[in-house]
Amino acid sequence: MEGLKGLLRHVPAYVLLQRIVGADRLRYRCIEEIRPGETVLDVGCGPAYYFPRLPQPLDYHGFDTDARYIDWAEEHFGGANASFHCGNFDEAAARSLPPIDVVLLLGLLHHLSDEQCTRLLNLAASVLSPGGRVISVDTCFEPTQGRISRWMSANDRGEYVREPAAFEKLAMQSFGQVEGKVINDATHIPSSYWMMRMTAPNGPWAE
Ligand SMILES: C[S@@+](CC[C@H](N)C(=O)[O-])C[C@H]1O[C@@H](n2cnc3c(N)ncnc32)[C@H](O)[C@@H]1O
């Protein structure tokens, strides 16, 4: 498993595996949320291989802690309306951004502890424009999944694969409205994902 994790830091291998597994189709469903002309923040963007599928025009800001992913994304997609930043998305980064219409957290929350998720979701809530939304999708454990899907969840690179209720509980600390659904049919290999749409920030930054 360590060998696979190392291989996935090699960007072409990561992108190829996403396509073989069908994880790209899951991302495409999430980005259907975005409308032309919107401002998008993508935290944990990885190589952002789904960038060409985003509606244009768009003002896009991607963040990831892995320099290999960010360098690849910058080389392939960087431009006047697309910037990629290597590092944690923190308070200083949040202050540097314009109001954000859509925050993407695609495959990120299951890599973060509860405390890290809470901090990130609060930050995401703080940068939203009026009517803005946060879209997340993560590998999950759910009661109806079969053995292969459960194995996929148990062996994911993320150390915090949760049940939907646990993801939802984290989201509800920062947002007044949280809608979620299990997706079992996106990938070619049986796998279960939990997608959430978070709106109406309920912190001090609420409208
Ligand atoms: C499963 S990958 C998803 C990448 C991309 N969003 C996608 O859907 O293909 C998770 C990404 O989150 C990044 N990551 C993990 N912890 C992070 C953090 N604290 N801040 C920003 N990125 C982080 C990892 O480097 C990795 O690229």
Automatic annotation (TrEMBL):
<dbReference type="GO" id="GO:0008168">
    <property type="term" value="F:methyltransferase activity"/>
</dbReference>
<keyword id="KW-0808">Transferase</keyword>
<dbReference type="GO" id="GO:0032259">
    <property type="term" value="P:methylation"/>
</dbReference>
<feature type="domain" description="Methyltransferase">
    <location>
        <begin position="40"/>
        <end position="132"/>
    </location>
</feature>
<dbReference type="Pfam" id="PF13649">
    <property type="entry name" value="Methyltransf_25"/>
</dbReference>
<dbReference type="InterPro" id="IPR029063">
    <property type="entry name" value="SAM-dependent_MTases_sf"/>
</dbReference>
<protein>
    <submittedName>
        <fullName>Methyltransferase family protein</fullName>
    </submittedName>
</protein>
<dbReference type="InterPro" id="IPR041698">
    <property type="entry name" value="Methyltransf_25"/>
</dbReference>
<keyword id="KW-0489">Methyltransferase</keyword>
